[in-house]
Model the fold of this input.
Amino acid sequence: MNLTDLVSKVETLGHIDRADFHFAFGVDKNFVPPMGIMLTSLVANNPKLNFHIHAFLNSIFDEDVLKLRAFVADTPNIRLDMYRVDPNAFAHFHVDRGYTIAVYNRILIAQILSSNIGGTATLIGDPPNIMIGSAVGLSFMDFILNLTLPAIVIFFVTIILLLLLYGSELKTQRELQDKVTRIDPKTKITDPKLLKKCLIVLAVTLSMFVMHGQLHLETATAALSGAGLLLLITATSNEM
Done:
């Protein structure tokens, strides 16, 4: 299952031109009030800073939604994005009274942070990178050569911080570990021919990205060429 299948944006509250800090919360309906208390303290003690809050929720009471809307409406230096996490995503994980399903939302936060950090190292990793590269004439390899090392360092620093913050809470059961180790990856590949075609197109597309400066191609040309080629060689008779 993809990350986009697990998480969907529910609502965006407030507007700020630029965020000085980003904060992410993994909570359920029982932890929304403590989150609200922290946000109130945060903005009250830092009136000159702008905050972008990302809340990953399995569930939330309607009255808490109304309270958050009212809070953000009265607070000009905060933006709140609420995301719904599929309640079935962690249905088979260990849960008890002191160890709720909301704990596992933090796994998603770690994955999202890692994805964004990795994206900064390439021209096509994030939309702002494409805008910057197009504006100043930076190539795909310029980003790789200058940002790969900083991205790796930031990635490890982030993982260490996440382990320090949440490491003691992220536990599992032995039988679940055994279940994962018994999975045969080959059985998950349902169409080997399609996989090989996709890998070939991926290699061609990446080569075009690497050499687009020498070939005098726009990154959009490389991306659309790869997408078009993949569409042509993977289309079935029903799709033609």
Notes: The chain is about 55% helix and 10% strand. The CA atoms of residues 127 and 194 lie 29 Å apart. The first strand starts at residue 7 and ends at 13. The first helix runs from residue 3 to 6.
